[in-house]
Design a protein that fits this description.
Belongs to the carbon-nitrogen hydrolase superfamily. NIT1/NIT2 family. Keywords: Hydrolase. It comes from Persicimonas caeni. InterPro entries: C-N_Hydrolase (IPR003010), C-N_Hydrolase_sf (IPR036526), Nit1/2_C-N_Hydrolase (IPR045254), UPF0012_CS (IPR001110). It contains eight helices and 16 strands. 30% of the residues lie in helices and 29% in strands. The longest helix has 19 residues. The mean pLDDT is 96. Helix 1 runs parallel beside helix 3. It has a six-stranded mixed beta sheet with strand order 5-4-3-2-1-16. It has a six-stranded mixed beta sheet with strand order 8-9-10-11-14-15, covered by helices on one side. It has a two-stranded antiparallel sheet with strand order 6-7. Strand 8 and strand 9 form a beta hairpin. With 276 residues, it is an alpha/beta fold. It is globular, with a radius of gyration of 17 Å. The structure holds N-(4-carboxy-4-oxobutanoyl)-L-cysteinylglycine (KGT). The site of N-(4-carboxy-4-oxobutanoyl)-L-cysteinylglycine has 15 residues, from helix 6.
Length: 276
Amino acid sequence: MKVSLVQLCSTRALERNLTRCRQLAEQAAGEGADWILFPENAPFLGKDADKLAVAETIDGTIVDQFRAIARDTGCWVGLGSFPEISPDASRTYNTQVLLDPAGQTSAVYRKIHLFDVDVEGGRNYRESDSVAAGQSPVTATVAAPDGDHTVGLSVCYDLRFPELYRKLVARGASVLTVPSAFTLQTGRDHWHPLLQARAIENQCYVLAPNQWGNHFGQRSSYGHSAIYDPWGRMLACAPEKECIVTAELDFEYLQDVRQRMPCLTHRRVGPDDRKK
Ligand SMILES: O=C(O)CNC(=O)[C@H](CS)NC(=O)CCC(=O)C(=O)O
């Protein structure tokens, strides 16, 4: 299975972002991608108050545009996240949507861990002021030319909570998605080590499209959108611009890694729902 990550510098201008998403998706399809993944809040990255105004349901016009991208390219599409209307009128969900090549919804994951953090040399973030936390880990199946693959979904700050990924792996995940808007200040020290650790300890492919650059003069994202293999090798990493990066995932290699070093079956401490 060939995957492309889209690295974006999303703005407050919905139309502008959607145009870039489509352009880069067409480029990815031209490179033979089976699955195209967009970063967290690809369609809109702006002030919290504005986010509420653009929020929609899964059946709204924002997700519709990504359904059209899936249909037109014939690819699976991961919409890293978009602001989804929640039952709480003052908060949105931060929602990742997996779409099949027909544009149908295959999975919906609402970000569980919210970024309420005072970043040194950066801003103070209070994601929970405008976002309602999701409750449930989500896995889904992506059907690729080389077979069906179970993928575990997560978003950005979730990356710091390894117990979430253990649960996804216990449910059979061999691919983990981490679409992000990881900050420049935290990313330069933590982005690669955390992605690499999740890949090594869970023996999974890790797909992490990130936002890059300065957004509305208020915050900067680290970029370095990256693909790690189940041994922890970095297969691809994006340069400092809006772009795509592509890699081929090899699931025979993944099985080989898991057989030679069966960490996942050697576990002695942990949740009861581990794979027996
Ligand atoms: O709010 C939006 O519009 C988009 N969402 C985000 O940017 C989110 C919440 S503020 N960012 C993160 O989770 C960064 C995590 C991070 O950088 C770290 O864990 O170090």
